[in-house]
Specification:
CATH class of the largest domain: Alpha Beta
Number of strands: 20
CATH architecture of the largest domain: Alpha-Beta Complex
Largest sheet: 7 strands, mixed
Strand order of the largest sheet: 18-15-14-11-10-9-20
Number of domains: 3
Shape: globular
């Protein structure tokens, strides 16, 4: 969410008669019944969206069907809770969730909640029964883990069968893990191995471990309150308008504020619960796991161990509890067993530490390539200290890094925006002005109003030499604005994979303040707040457009030079959500392409020849095909030998890639001379710098971008280093 909009609320005047109808249901002074509070919450949410959302969807039968399916699939994605008979009973709500100011949503919730809680009790019983007896792993049974391709169970007998199959899958994974670990310890003559267990004993140990894990899972489920499930209902309704509109009850709002402040989990990984899996959403730049380098967004944490201690299986754990296990004293080791997106399983050791803000600031190095110096600037986010007028801003810091590189005599610059989720819009506009003369950078549009053109007001540029901007699926919002502007001006070559596609702005509003304001307008006088709280709403209020008129929403920015990506065949980013707002375009603003435009077609053709001959990129393509196949099928064998073969296939590409990467000639990288003294201030700074440079040296994407810059320098040998600092 772009920070420049943080304090802007758009609340239009409403027709008083509509307000009177809306508030014919008044919030009781004593708090009312539970359902009364829920009705008030959903009514207020719907009214806020209707009046303030950039593009609210029409509340009709189509909307109701979408919200209805979103609720059912969200609460039973794997189809192991509800039966077709349950769905038949709920069918009466499919077309009416949009009616009666959302009161039907509350009625649906009440009916659903009774059945859901009973089905969860049944599921716990099925689970316990399945784990009482040993499993046979010699049959040719399979399990489909793609919930979208599995119908709801016919009846409770089929539900029980599904839990039996799922428990067999879980036990098989644990059994194979135990068996392989024992084999390795025997081969290494590990003296700590006191007893060699038989296959039956290993199966028993595996079932006990999974039973413990599932007991914890159901314990967490049983601790959930009705209000927690109702919050999901409201969010399903809100999320039907777009993926970034969310309802926060009071407690969740506090957690959201904590996340927005930049305070993440102990090791520096942001986690989310994804259908019972603990998934890595993003890695905090400069954090312990960022420095370690192996944990990636999309990885699923399966187990957590305190150093060499016995790992805890955290599948189906609550996120808060996983965080508590991962956290620990600074300097101690936590070992995460993760399932990577490729399907491979890996143990990743991470030394706990504090995420230092200094690591999130822009920084640069010099890449020495065949006698030509190339500057590299890493920008993890578009940061700005809005509370301190003299605080650091990314546009100013990038200007400083550009000046450093110019003083070092670089002939080209690479700006790395991979994984940069956005930030300050003001800094996007100012940063664009470092590379392009005075002109527009982006258009911002509010529903019903003409688009506002945001321009770089200063004439002149700081650097107008060869420029490449690196992006990937994690490049979003402000990153997309800068990449799009440089692409439209034909100022830089954009390198990598398609960006996220988030071209919208959100604002968090207090539903309590909004409700009080509505009541005051309806009454024609100021109404005091009741003191009761129903939460907040994160609402999409604006949309971005490129200067050429195209939206950055949904499509994102397509690079001029596409490089292979392990996830290239998957629908990622904004495109993955069916509720995402559509791409559209508005009239372009007046702008002039730079005098010496980048010949992106020639650069792309030259890069393709190198990429096609590069064994590392060939393996990335192979991995991409396998990941796509896994996503489409996601059918796992429950036969031990076939299961092992699938594991070996999943790990094979990773092992090949590791071998190929060992043979890669590393990039020659040095720090700007002006930074040396600061880096050498203490051993910790030296270590952090060494770790960063070590990772860059083996970065195949950076290596190819250096080749692209070299091509660009040859195509345009005249480099004007600009008119000075702005």
């Amino acid at each position: 969410m772009l920070r420049f909009m943080k304090n802007k609320i758009l609340i239009p005047l409403l027709v008083l008669s509509a307000l009177a109808a809306f508030f014919s249901f008044r919030y009781a002074a004593d708090g009312g019944t539970t359902d009364d509070k829920r009705k008030l919450a959903i009514k207020t949410v719907l009214k806020a969206i209707e009046q303030n959302h950039f593009s609210p969807r029409e509340m009709n039968d189509s909307f109701s069907v979408t919200a209805y399916n979103k609720i059912l699939n969200g609460l039973d994605y794997d189809k192991r809770i509800l039966t077709q008979e349950d769905i038949k009973n709920f069918k009466k709500y499919e077309l009416i969730l949009d009616d009666k100011d959302g009161e039907n949503v509350v009625s649906f919730f009440d009916d659903f909640n009774v059945i859901y809680k009973q089905r969860m009790k049944d599921a716990e019983r099925y689970c316990n029964n399945a784990l009482k007896m040993p499993f046979s792993f010699s049959t040719d049974e399979t399990i489909n883990l793609n919930g979208e391709k599995v119908p709801f169970a016919k009846d409770t007998n089929e539900l029980q069968s599904r839990w039996n199959t799922y428990m067999k899958y879980r036990v098989l994974a644990k059994y194979v893990d135990l068996k392989d670990d024992q084999k390795k310890r025997i081969e290494k003559k590990d003296t700590t191995l006191k007893v060699v267990m038989s296959d039956n004993q290993l199966d028993s140990v595996a079932r006990v471990a999974i039973k413990k894990n599932m007991d914890y899972y159901f314990k967490r489920i049983n601790k959930l309150k009705d209000d927690d499930r109702f919050t999901f209902f409201v969010n399903s309704i809100a999320g039907t308008h777009d993926p970034h509109t969310d309802y926060f009850p009071p407690v969740d709002k506090a957690l959201f504020d904590e996340q927005m402040s930049g305070t993440f989990f102990g090791i520096g990984a942001q986690l989310q619960n994804d259908d019972g899996k603990v998934k890595i959403v993003s890695i905090v730049p400069g954090s312990p796991c960022w420095k370690q380098g192996e944990l990636k967004a999309g990885d699923v944490i399966m187990k957590v161990a305190q150093g060499a201690a016995e790992p805890v299986d955290v599948q189906n754990y609550d996120i808060d509890d996983v965080v508590k296990i991962i956290r620990g004293p600074k300097g101690t080791e936590v070992r995460l067993t993760v399932k990577q997106v490729s399907g491979a399983t890996k143990i990743i050791p991470i030394i706990r530490g504090v995420v230092e803000k200094e690591e999130t600031f822009a920084k640069s190095v010099i890449i020495n390539n065949n006698g030509a110096k190339v500057g590299y600037i890493y920008l993890p986010e578009f940061y700005a200290d809005f509370q301190n007028y003299n605080g650091r801003r990314c546009s100013e810091d990038v200007a400083i890094e550009v000046a450093k590189l110019k003083n070092e005599g670089v002939r080209g610059i690479i700006l790395d925006l991979r994984g940069n989720g956005g930030g300050s819009l003001t800094d996007v506009v100012n940063m664009g002005g470092l590379f392009v003369d005075k002109g527009p950078m982006v258009q911002v549009k509010t529903n019903g109003n003409n688009a506002q053109e945001l321009d770089d007001p200063q004439s002149g540029v700081l650097y107008d030499g060869p420029l490449a901007i690196m992006v990937n699926t994690g490049s979003a919002s402000a990153s997309e604005i800068l990449a799009a502007a440089m692409q439209d001006y034909k100022r830089a070559v954009i390198v990598g994979s398609p960006t996220y596609g988030k071209g919208t702005v959100q604002k968090v509003i207090s539903l309590d303040e909004y409700r009080t304001w509505l009541e005051s307008v309806a009454a024609g006088k100021r109404i005091a707040s009741s003191g009761d709280t129903i939460g907040s709403l994160k609402l999409t209020i604006q949309k971005f457009y490129r200067i050429n008129g195209g939206s950055t929403q949904l499509k994102g920015v397509t690079p001029d030079v596409m490089l292979p990506d392990a996830y290239e065949h998957m629908e990622l980013g904004e495109r993955r959500d069916k509720a995402a707002m559509k791409w559209d375009e508005i009239p372009a603003v007046k702008y002039n392409v730079v005098n010496n435009p980048v010949n992106t077609q020639e650069l792309a053709a030259r890069s393709k020849k190198r990429v096609d001959a590069n064994p590392s990129f060939a393996l990335i393509k192979e991995s991409a095909n396998r990941i796509k196949k896994l996503e489409e099928e996601n059918i796992v064998s429950l036969n031990e030998s076939k299961y092992r073969k699938e594991l070996e296939e999943a790990n094979a590409v990773g092992k090949k890639l590791e071998e190929v990467e060992k043979k890669i000639t590393p990039l020659s990288i040095t720090n700007p001379q002006v930074d040396i003294a600061k880096i050498n201030l203490d051993s910790n700074s030296v270590k952090k710098n060494d770790e960063w440079i070590k990772a860059l040296k083996k970065d195949m994407y950076l290596s190819e971008t250096v080749n692209i810059i070299n091509d660009l320098m040859k195509m345009d040998t005249k480099v004007n280093m600009g008119t000075g600092m702005k």
